[in-house]
Specification:
single chain, 843 residues, alpha/beta, elongated
Length: 843
């Protein structure tokens, strides 16, 4: 217990300590109470103190539950074998937190796993993020919170570090500091760990980072030692070092992220467009899931990173498009490459674990299996030729010496635990083979002993067995105890009989244990030699893994384009956005999933055209009934634009897009009651963000602005928003604005860059048929009552609604309506002056 308290006192607050005692990890006091509730453990007491234990072999299962609950877990393990009469030395080996886990069973192989740190001061927002599992390490700074928050939200860090007291300061910022409150919302939506403020100081961070990277300065990374984001970067390294109980060994570089070179998507847009997760939660139904055809875990994570920070580098976009095109045009090569990639293991994370002392034989098997695929991969790339071969071949190192070494050294079937042994192939090392033969001969001797004792004693059920606690023993059932010879020494009584030893068995036990221990020690020595050899080639392996991940993403896009008939978009520095027969990349696939086919709801997606430009058709005002497809249409334009700028081909017959610097969306209705924001307030906050930050190179999609308040207020706000977006006399952001306010369609006569569009429907016997076509011109009706009938409203309600609507449209006030409250506004004609001073009547 003295050992326990010494370790516990040095741990961060709210960290649960798992303390190794023999075959169990024990938890005591409050830790036991907390863990028992989360993991469903039986809570016991020792000397009136609560305790709970978990089997060491099943610890990962329980640790995962604790991490999922947002807890931090410290592991205090035995540092030496147990010996009778001697206190076992124990040491803190690792602190696990949601952002610093490395074990494969604690990570989603297809998702990046970031630990991030942020600091806010008068100069702006400073941030750094680190994926300990792969060694990716970046920092960024920006004078405007709005420019960094999008990428931080897209990265979705598993854990966030902030200075002590920062959250309270951000929470109490003046209400008009919307960006600060958005930063606070981002921080409090995930596990947030506070560190002393001095950990975020720039000078301290620079020293910590340089020491970890093993450099004298940061000029080789293009960074000055005064870069303000080095404070958060240093906090990350400090926190990772504390949790690993050692310096992270897989950090080799530090890269700067610049928002000016990235297409930005703010948190609302990431959510509204369902980029990484659907509104229902989870990856199903998201854009990422729809375009992910990767065959490797590293490829899936690279795709996620590309979507989180789409590039504005036109040359890089064209490069990716070209490589996808070459793969599309050569189906045999595409098929073979994907088959080979399917056998590639997760080299970045394997290297991360090996470098940070988390090692097992299967990790080495993953390196071996990957290297085995490389000759065939290189041959296939060479046969494919073109830009693809030129881009990939120089980056893929075959490493034949390492491949042959691992093939000779490792067994075909590898255990998950070093303690199990038998992972080094027989014949690789003569000394190991000699030690194993001793063990094998001894086990043969035990079998012979069992047969000999059965014959000597006449006890046919006699068995020679082994347990960790008692070693080797002879087991005799109760029915045969009268036959036990005098030279048997009783060791233990069991329910079914007795356990004995003999002097001969004791002597042999020592020989067996010695041989097994020596064999395991020699095997571990050989294993560590193999690990060192692999790490000598870590840079070449990492570079190869990066090339394979990129090839995997591009090959997946080529398969996607072939499956769904995508086209290669043309991107340029102009302001046009021209899409011919564009389709929604997610909805199109969902209409064809097996479940839809089984239900009989499978159908072809109806494509639509889009034509926008900053100087001519800048703003498209789209009207039409609910369920007609307005929201799907405006979203698909945004998603096609995003896909084009990450370098993918797109779901359309033809596409030309002038580079977009930001995509904004205001879609759907939701409230944020926990922060005191109503549905309408959320809508206005998001709209304000758009109007304050959009440039003439942005793409904006707006759906039903103003519907969260009264009709007159909502219409007035929507009207003013349209005018604001059109305020520049020559150009403005490309905008798609879906609305039910028919009055807004009159603006086409007075705003030269506004175009009316509508989603066509067909009427048949008072029913409507949605044809999903977007056509020029405004809708003549909203068809709300017909849609209400489709939703299943009672016929009495439908009939009454028709009567009320008919009289309202005829301006007949004789219809019996509830008496309005005194403050209600009477129905009247009002005159509104648009930006060009023309008079428009709004009914």
């Amino acid at each position: 217990m003295q050992q326990y308290f010494e370790v516990k006192r040095g741990l961060p607050r709210d960290t649960l300590l798992l303390f190794r005692l023999g075959d169990f990890f024990e938890m005591f006091f409050d830790d036991a109470i907390v863990a028992s509730k989360i993991c469903g453990l039986t809570l016991t007491r020792r000397q009136e103190h609560p305790m709970a234990g978990i089997p060491a072999h099943a610890a990962d299962t329980y640790v995962n539950k604790l991490l999922a609950a947002g807890k931090k877990v410290a592991i205090c393990d035995q540092a030496e074998p147990a010996k009778a009469g001697k206190l076992v030395r124990r040491t803190l080996t690792r602190i696990l937190s949601p952002g610093t886990t490395l074990a494969a069973n604690q990570l989603d192989a297809n998702r990046n796993h970031y630990l991030a740190a942020i600091a806010l001061d008068h100069a702006g927002l400073h941030a750094s993020w680190l994926d300990l599992s792969t060694g990716e390490f970046r920092l960024a700074t920006d004078a405007r919170i709005e420019n960094l928050l999008p990428v931080l939200t897209a990265l979705d860090p598993a854990e966030l570090l902030v200075a002590e007291g920062a959250l309270a300061i951000w929470q109490t910022a003046p209400h008009e500091q919307i960006a600060v409150h958005a930063l606070h919302a981002f921080a409090t939506s995930r596990l947030c760990s506070e560190l002393p403020a001095y950990n975020f100081e720039t000078a301290t961070g620079a020293r910590t980072v340089m020491d970890t990277l093993g450099v004298l300065n940061l000029q080789g990374f293009g960074l000055a030692h005064t870069h303000p984001a080095l404070g958060p970067a240093g906090a990350l390294v400090y926190y990772a070092t504390e949790n690993l109980c050692a310096k992270p060994e897989n950090l080799r570089s530090l890269q700067e992220y610049r928002s000016a070179g990235t297409l930005l998507l703010d948190p609302a847009t990431l959510r509204n467009l369902e980029i990484f997760a659907s509104i229902r939660g989870g990856r199903d139904g998201s854009l990422l899931n729809a375009i992910n055809r990767t065959a490797t875990a590293a490829g899936a994570r690279l795709l996620e990173r590309w979507l989180a920070a789409p590039t504005l580098d036109l040359a890089e976009i064209v490069r990716r498009q070209t490589l996808v095109g070459e793969l599309i045009s050569s189906p045999p090569h595409l098929s073979t490459l994907r088959d080979l990639l399917g056998n590639v293991r997760d080299i970045p994370r394997i290297l991360g674990r090996l470098q940070n002392r988390l090692r097992n034989p299967r990790e080495l098997g993953g390196v071996r299996d990957t290297l085995t695929q490389l000759p065939a991969l290189r041959a296939e790339l060479a046969a494919a030729g073109g830009h693809l071969a030129g881009a990939c071949l120089p980056m893929i190192a075959e490493l034949p010496n390492l491949r042959d070494l691992l093939a000779r050294a490792l067994a075909d079937e590898l255990p998950a635990d070093l303690a199990e042994g038998n992972y080094i192939r027989a014949g690789y090392d003569a000394e190991l083979d000699r030690l194993r033969s001793l063990t094998s001969d001894n086990k043969t001797w035990l079998s012979d002993l069992e047969r000999a004792e059965q014959e000597r004693t006449g006890i046919r059920s006699l068995k020679v067995r082994f347990t960790n606690n008692f070693g080797y023993y002879i087991e005799v059932t109760k029915a045969n105890l009268h036959l036990v010879p005098a030279d048997y020494i009783r060791r233990q009584t069991t329910v079914g009989g007795e356990r004995y030893v003999t002097e001969e068995l004791r002597k042999k036990e020592k020989e067996i244990f010695s041989a097994e221990e020596n064999a395991l020690a020699r095997e571990l020595e050989l294993f560590n030699q193999l690990v060192a050899t692999i790490l000598d080639d870590a840079i070449a392996l990492a570079q190869t893994a990066d090339a394979l991940a990129e090839l995997d993403v591009l090959a997946g896009w080529a398969l996607l384009a072939r499956e769904w008939d995508y086209c290669r978009p043309t991107l340029d520095d102009g302001d046009a956005l021209e899409i011919t027969e564009g389709r929604h990349p997610v909805v199109e696939q969902m209409l064809k999933v097996p479940e839809a086919i089984a239900r009989g709801t499978s159908q072809a997606f109806v494509p639509n055209d889009t034509l926008l430009s900053c100087e001519e058709a800048q703003l498209a005002l789209i009207t039409g009934p609910n369920m007609a497809g307005k929201s799907t249409y405006i979203r698909q334009v945004a998603l096609i634009t995003l896909l084009a700028q990450v370098g993918s081909w797109v779901p359309a017959k033809a596409c030309r897009i002038g580079l977009v610097d930001r995509i904004f969306s205001r879609v759907g209705a939701s409230d944020d009651l926990a922060r005191g924001n109503s549905t309408f307030m959320v809508e206005m906050n998001e709209t304000a963000n758009i109007l304050n930050n959009a440039t003439d190179r942005s793409l904006i999609i707006l759906d039903e602005i103003g519907r969260g308040t009264s009709t007159y207020d909502g219409l007035s706000i929507a009207w003013a928003v349209v005018e604001h977006l059109h305020r520049d006399p020559e150009r403005g952001p490309r905008t798609l604005f879906a609305t039910h306010y028919q009055e807004l369609t009159q603006l086409e006569k007075h705003l030269p860059r506004l175009r009316n569009l509508s989603v066509a429907v067909k009427e048949w016997n008072d029913d409507i048929v949605f044809v999903r076509r977007v056509v020029p011109g405004a809708a003549d009706r909203s068809y709300g009552i017909q849609v209400a009938r489709l939703a299943g409203l009672p016929l009495s309600v439908i009939d009454r609604a028709k009567t009320i609507l008919a009289r309202l449209e005829s301006d007949d006030t004789s219809v019996t309506l509830p008496t309005p409250a005194p403050s209600a506004r009477p129905k009247k004609k009002i005159s509104v002056t648009p930006a060009d001073d023309a008079q428009l009547n709004l009914l």
